[in-house]
Amino acid sequence: MARQVIDTNPPVGTPAPTAFGMVNAMFAEIYGWAGTGALAKLIGGNSFQGSQTVSAGNFRVQVIAGQDQFFVRELGSDGRVVVDAVNADNTAFRPLTLRGSALNFATPAAFASTLEGPSLTATGAGATLGFVDRTDFTRVWNWYSSGAISRLWYTGIGDRLSVNASNGQVSAVSFNPTSSADVKDYLEGYAGDACEELDRLVVVTYRYRPEFGGPEGTVAGLLAENVQSVWPNAVGGDYDEERPEPVLAEDGTPMFDAEGEPVTVMRTHHVPMNIDMMQTLARCVRAHQQKSRRIRNLEATVVALQDAIAELQGRAA
Asked: pTM value?
């Protein structure tokens, strides 16, 4: 029904029931909406019942007057919806916390392929970031941290991988590089003199600089620069790369632009040199084989000499 406007200065002789009839008709329609779900009933003054649709453009909820707001709005011009937490003046973003015994993201929900500024954080005594095995949908992997050690845990087994923040050590039962013949071409036996090459390597003792967070105390190892001089293709790193880093507000939280996108700045980072341990191990194996062959040849020579000496001694006797 269209709105019915009651004339407050009706012509003389207009009966009062005409105006009240208009009022009753409009109230009857409104109460009818409640029965069809178009308008929820207010129960006790603080709750709604039935399905509701609010078409109000930007929608804000401010739990405490003058404090942060929960803000639902359109992002850009393509109809995407974004949920923000903003301050009372809507001039800065504020932390948004979602709580529950579990937060489930069902298909087709997905995170953006690149997260430049925001982060996904789990807090609390039992905080973990978990995901279900896609084959049986029952077993769960969980990332969690305890004592500055990040651990990957699997249902029914326990921790399977750990990363120590203090020294950068990664621990697991085994690390298995891909090495089957079906991923390799131009297979040939190693032609170099691995023993001579190993003799050119320099084993040193050293301490890690504090900013790199390596193991404490003195450790023994190789220098990538030295390894490169012997095996040029057995090292990596030693280059600069540009990485986007989030711009943080004064409170340490990431800043976002008017479109809800993280504000980032490109910074240059140097990637230190590293050593391909599989190539080093392979040449150590080759050097062992070469030494074993030489030892066997020497042993055979010694036996032959011993036999010759024994024969000469027998003749002299």
From this structure: 0.59
